[in-house]
Design a protein that fits this description.
binds S-adenosylmethionine; alpha/beta; 858 residues; seven-stranded antiparallel sheet; TIM Barrel; 30 strands; disordered C terminus; single chain; disordered N terminus; Hnrnp arginine n-methyltransferase1; elongated
Length: 858
C-alpha cells in the first residue's frame, strides 16, 4: 500500500504508475451525443473547480481531473436500422411476388444471380455523428445488429454493406477508431471466413481509421449475446442459440480472432477489444457504436477470469480496449462497486504494456435521463435546497451529474497499482517489443554514446569484478605460478592480466579494483581495435590509471602477446584473459572466433578466460505484434524475416510448457574457453605467419583455412511440448555465461550472468545490458496441436555456420548473407544462422540510434 506522499506528484517520494484511460459506453444510446451532452459525460464527477459546464476538458488536462476521457458514439441510429429492416422486408415480399408471377422452381430461386437488396447511401436522418473538434476522442461503434457471419446470403450481404457505409462515413468524419462487434459464435469456419473478408474490405474502405474487433476472452456458457440482429429478425433459426454447444472450448474465441487477423494479413490497423463482463459484446439495444480505423481487438473480460494460458494468449495480442460491464463490478461491504482480485491482477498486468489498453465502462452512467435535460446555466446558480444539499454531499456543483462511483473505483485501482520499478523507466518501457538489428562490434566501430550506454548497467560490471576477484583469490590459494616468473625471478608474484576489446575501459577499471582489493600485484594490458575508443583509453590511462596499463591498438586475433615489463625482449603468456564480446545469443557477436585468435597467448595449463563459458537457449513464442511489424517492413526491407532481431520481448506468449525432460527454455549449445584443442592453433603453429595466406573468404571448411573454424560450428535439435492450440511466430533466444567457475573449495558458486527469464533474477538481477534475440519464422508458422486434446511436440533444428577466422572476411559486408531460415513441414522447422553478420541497410544515422540501443536503452 502506498503512502499518501508517494501519490502526490509534487512530493519528492512520488512514484509514478500507469495511467488509466477510461471511456464511457451506454448500451441504450442510439444517437451520438451533442456537444453539451458529451461535455457533461466527461465532466461527470470532475472536481467542481476543474471545469466549466460549457468548456469541458475534452481529453486534455490532468488525469486526476478527468474521470471519463472519451465516449462511444453510434455511427448510425434507429432510423437507419428501421430503413434497412424495411428494405429487406420489401425485398423479400417483392421477390416472393416475382417468384409467384414467373412460377420459378426451387432451383431457379436458388440462382445466385437473382439480385439481392442494395442499401442506399446514408442520409442526414440516419446519423447524428458529424465531424467535430472532438471526433478524435470518440470511439465510433458499428451497428451491432448486423450479422456478417450469417449463412443467409442476403443477410450477410446487407450486413457487409452496412458495415462499409458506416466505416466509410466514420472515416470521413475523422474518427480514429471504429469498434466492430466480433462474431457471435466460433463454430462455423465458413461464417468466420466471411466475417474476416468483410473486415478486410472495411479496412480498405476506412483507410485511415483503426478497426477494433470486440471479442470475449472466451465464450462463457449462459452468457451468450442476446442482441437483436438481422439474423434473428429474418431467420430466428440462425440466432445465437442455433447450434449452441454445452462444451466450453476456452480458445475458440481466440481461434476466430486468429482467423480474422490472418485473413487481414496482420494489418497494423487491426486490434482487439476485450469485454470484462458476462454480457457479451457492447450492446446498443440494437445500436452500439465506436469509431477508429486499423485492426485492433477490444477484449471482453469475462466475469470469471480464465486460466493463465488464455490470459497470456490475449496479452500477446494487439489489445486496444478492455471493456467492463456494470455487472462485472460487485458491491463491496460498504455497497460501493469493486472488482474481484483476479480482475484487478489482470488489469494491473495489462497496464504494464508500453501502450496499455484503454478501459471502457459500460452502462455505469451518467444515465440517458440525466443527459436528456440540459441544465439551465442560470438554474445552476439558484438550485433547490435539496439539489444543493445533494451536490454538497457529493462535492460537485449543482446540476452536474452525480459523481460516478465506478470511475471513482477505477481511479482508486489506478492509485493502488505497484509503482513503476527500476526496470520500468520510460526509456526501458519504450523498448518493449521494439525490433533492432543486433550490434556487430567486430565489423563496426562503436561510438562513444554506445559505450556510455553499456557502462550504465552496473550489474554486468559488478559480476565481472566479482569473477576477477574470485580468480585472483583462488590463484593465491591454489599457489598457481604466474606468467611473469622468469629464470631470474622464478617467484615473481605479478599476474599477467589482459582485457581484450577494452572499449572505453570499464573492465580495466574493475580489474585494477579487484587486484587492489585482493592485494594481487599485476601487469595489465588492454587491447582495442576501435581506433577512436583507443584515443579514449590513452587519455584514461594518463588521467585515471596512472599509466600503469599497457595499451595496444590491435585486433586481438593479430596480437603478438605480452612483452613483460623489464624484459621487453620476452613475449610472455596471459594468466587471466578478460573479454566481453557476448551477444544476446551468446556467440552472435563472434566471441568464439575472436577468442580463438587470442587464446594461444593464455598460459597453459593454469591460465583462464573470463568468461569461462556461455550457452545459447531457445523457446518458441507467439508474438503477433512482432509478426505484424515484420510483415509491414518487408515492403521496404525484403530481408526483415531473414534477420535475427534484438528485442525486449514483452507482449509475447511462451507457447511451450515445462514438462519432465522438456523445459520451456532449452539449451542450444555451449562454448567453453580456452578451447582445449584448437585446430587454428595447430594450423598457425604449422604455417607460422604464412597461415594467413591460406585463408580465403567463405564459411566453414569451405573457407580454405583448413577447416580451422569447424570446431565453432554448432547444431541442435530440440523438442518442445506445446499444450494448447496457437501459432508460433518465431524463436526467442537468450544466453547465460559462467564468468568464473571456481577451481577450489567444494560448494563454491560460479559467478554467472544470465538473461534467461527464469534465471535472470537469481543470477544477475536487474541486468539490462542485453535484450533477448528473436529469430522470426518467415512463412507458415505452425499451428498446434491438431486436436484439442493432444499435446504437440514441436521440433526445431538450429545450425550455427562456422565462418572463416580471417580478419578480412570477418569485416567484409558481402561475405554471406546472415542467417537463413526455412520451414520444413507443418510441425517442425530449422534455421541456419551465421553469427556476426546481418543485413545492414539502414542509414548511418538510423544505425547510430539503433546500435546504441541494441543492447542497451539510450
Ligand atoms: C561489447 S564491447 C565491450 C567494451 C567494454 N569491454 C565494455 O564492457 O564496456 C566489445 C569491444 O570489443 C572490441 N572488439 C571486438 N572485436 C575485437 C577484436 N577482434 N579485437 C579487438 N577488439 C575487439 C570492440 O571494438 C568493442 O570495443
Amino acid at each position: 500500500m502506498s503512502s499518501s506522499g508517494s501519490l502526490n506528484p509534487q512530493s519528492e517520494s512520488f512514484e509514478s504508475r500507469p495511467t488509466f484511460y477510461i471511456g464511457q459506453h451506454d448500451s441504450t444510446r442510439s444517437e451520438a451525443l451533442s456537444d453539451d451532452q458529451y461535455a457533461q459525460v466527461l465532466n461527470s464527477g470532475v472536481s467542481p473547480s476543474a471545469v466549466s459546464l460549457r468548456a469541458p476538458v475534452l481529453g486534455r488536462g490532468g488525469a486526476d481531473q478527468e474521470q471519463f476521457r472519451f465516449v462511444t458514439a453510434p455511427i448510425t441510429n434507429r432510423h437507419f436500422f428501421d430503413r434497412v429492416v424495411k428494405l429487406h422486408r420489401d425485398y423479400l415480399r417483392e421477390r416472393e411476388e416475382w417468384v409467384q408471377q414467373r412460377g420459378l422452381t426451387a432451383s431457379q430461386q436458388a440462382n445466385p444471380s437473382l439480385p439481392g437488396p442494395v442499401v442506399p447511401t446514408l442520409t442526414d436522418e440516419d446519423t447524428s455523428l458529424f465531424p467535430s473538434n472532438y471526433i478524435g476522442s470518440l470511439a465510433a461503434y458499428a451497428s451491432p445488429w448486423i450479422d456478417l457471419c450469417s449463412p443467409d446470403p442476403h443477410v450477410s450481404s446487407l450486413s457487409r454493406q452496412v458495415l462499409n457505409l458506416e466505416a466509410a462515413y466514420a472515416n470521413f468524419c475523422g474518427a480514429r477508431t471504429i469498434i466492430v462487434p466480433g462474431p457471435r459464435q466460433d463454430d462455423s469456419s465458413r461464417g468466420i471466413a466471411q466475417y474476416a473478408r468483410a473486415i478486410r474490405e472495411a479496412l480498405n474502405v476506412a483507410n485511415r481509421a483503426n478497426i477494433i474487433i470486440h471479442m470475449p476472452m472466451y465464450r462463457e456458457p449462459g452468457l451468450e449475446e442476446k442482441a437483436e440482429t438481422l439474423s434473428t429478425i429474418f431467420g430466428p433459426e440462425n440466432g445465437p442459440e442455433a447450434g449452441a454447444k454445452k462444451e466450453i472450448d476456452l480458445f475458440s474465441a481466440w481461434d476466430s480472432w486468429n482467423t480474422i487477423r490472418s485473413m487481414c494479413n496482420y494489418s497494423m490497423r487491426l486490434f482487439v477489444g476485450m469485454l470484462l463482463d458476462h454480457l457479451g459484446p457492447i450492446q446498443g439495444g440494437g445500436r452500439c457504436f465506436i469509431s477508429a480505423a486499423d485492426l485492433y481487438t477490444a477484449i471482453r473480460i469475462p466475469r470469471r477470469v480464465p486460466e493463465k494460458a488464455l490470459q497470456e494468449r490475449w496479452f500477446a495480442e494487439p489489445l486496444h480496449y478492455l471493456t467492463i460491464g456494470a455487472e462485472t463490478f460487485q458491491p463491496n461491504r460498504a455497497g460501493h462497486p469493486s472488482l474481484s482480485k483476479h480482475h484487478q491482477d489482470m488489469i494491473n498486468r495489462y497496464m504494464r504494456l508500453r501502450n496499455p489498453p484503454w478501459l471502457i465502462l459500460c452502462d455505469v452512467g451518467p444515465r440517458p435521463e440525466e443527459l436528456a435535460v440540459l441544465p439551465d446555466p442560470t438554474a445552476a446558480e439558484f438550485p433547490s435546497l435539496a439539489e444543493a444539499n445533494q451536490a454538497l454531499r457529493e462535492n460537485r456543483r449543482p446540476h452536474m451529474p452525480s459523481l460516478n462511483a465506478h470511475v471513482g473505483y477505477m481511479k482508486h485501482l489506478e492509485r493502488q497499482q505497484p509503482p513503476f520499478s527500476a526496470m520500468e523507466t520510460p526509456a526501458l518501457m519504450s523498448f518493449q517489443d521494439w525490433l533492432q538489428p543486433p550490434l556487430q562490434p567486430l565489423a563496426d566501430n562503436l561510438e562513444s554514446a554506445t559505450y556510455e550506454v553499456f557502462e550504465g548497467d552496473p550489474v554486468k560490471y559488478d559480476q565481472y569484478e566479482k569473477a576477477i576477484t574470485e580468480a585472483m583469490i583462488e590463484w593465491k590459494d591454489l599457489k598457481k605460478p604466474t606468467s611473469t616468473a622468469t629464470p631470474e625471478n622464478p617467484s615473481s608474484p605479478e599476474l599477467v592480466v589482459t582485457v581484450a576489446g577494452a572499449g572505453r575501459g570499464p573492465l580495466v577499471t574493475r580489474a585494477l579494483r579487484a587486484a587492489e582489493k585482493t592485494g594481487t600485484p599485476i601487469q595489465i594490458w588492454a587491447l582495442e581495435k576501435n581506433q577512436d575508443a583507443f584515443v579514449y583509453l590513452l587519455r584514461k590511462n594518463r588521467l585515471e590509471w596512472n599509466n600503469q596499463v599497457t595499451l595496444v591498438k590491435t585486433d586481438m586475433r593479430g596480437w603478438e602477446g605480452p612483452r613483460l615489463k623489464g624484459r621487453e625482449d620476452v613475449i610472455g603468456k596471459v594468466d587471466i584473459l578478460i573479454t566481453e564480446l557476448l551477444g544476446s545469443f551468446g556467440d552472435n557477436e563472434l566471441s568464439p572466433e575472436c577468442l580463438d585468435g587470442i587464446q594461444r597467448h593464455i598460459a597453459r595449463p593454469h591460465g583462464i578466460s573470463i568468461p569461462h563459458s556461455y550457452t545459447a537457449h531457445l523457446s518458441p513464442i507467439s508474438t503477433p505484434r512482432l509478426f505484424a511489424d515484420l510483415s509491414s517492413r518487408v515492403v521496404s526491407d525484403p530481408n526483415a524475416f531473414e534477420t535475427p532481431w534484438v528485442v525486449r520481448l514483452f507482449a509475447v506468449d511462451y507457447v511451450a510448457q515445462k514438462v519432465p525432460g522438456h523445459p520451456r527454455f532449452q539449451q542450444a549449445w555451449e562454448f567453453v574457453h580456452p578451447v582445449e584443442v584448437a585446430r587454428a592453433d595447430d594450423f598457425a603453429a604449422q604455417h607460422g605467419k604464412a597461415a594467413a595466406r591460406y585463408v580465403t573468404g567463405g564459411v566453414g571448411s569451405m573457407s580454405g583455412a583448413g577447416g580451422t573454424n569447424e570446431h565453432n560450428a554448432r547444431h541442435c535439435h530440440l523438442t518442445f511440448v506445446c499444450p494448447t492450440r496457437g501459432v508460433i511466430h518465431g524463436l526467442a533466444g537468450f544466453f547465460e555465461s559462467v564468468l568464473y567457475a571456481p577451481q577450489a573449495g567444494a560448494g563454491k558458486e560460479p559467478v554467472e550472468i544470465s538473461i534467461l527469464p527464469d534465471q535472470i533474477d537469481r543470477k544477475s538481477k536487474d541486468m539490462i545490458s542485453w535484450f533477448p534475440i528473436f529469430f522470426p519464422l518467415k512463412v507458415g508458422f505452425f499451428r498446434f496441436p491438431p486436436s484439442r486434446d493432444t499435446k504437440l511436440d514441436l521440433q526445431i533444428t538450429l545450425c550455427r555456420r562456422a565462418r572463416s577466422t580471417s580478419r578480412r572476411t570477418q569485416n567484409s559486408r558481402s561475405a554471406c548473407g546472415g542467417k537463413q531460415m526455412t520451414e520444413r513441414c507443418g510441425t517442425s522447422g530449422w534455421w541456419r544462422y551465421t553469427p556476426g553478420l546481418g543485413p545492414r541497410r539502414e542509414s548511418r544515422s538510423a544505425r547510430r540510434i539503433s546500435t546504441a540501443a541494441a543492447r542497451w536503452p539510450v
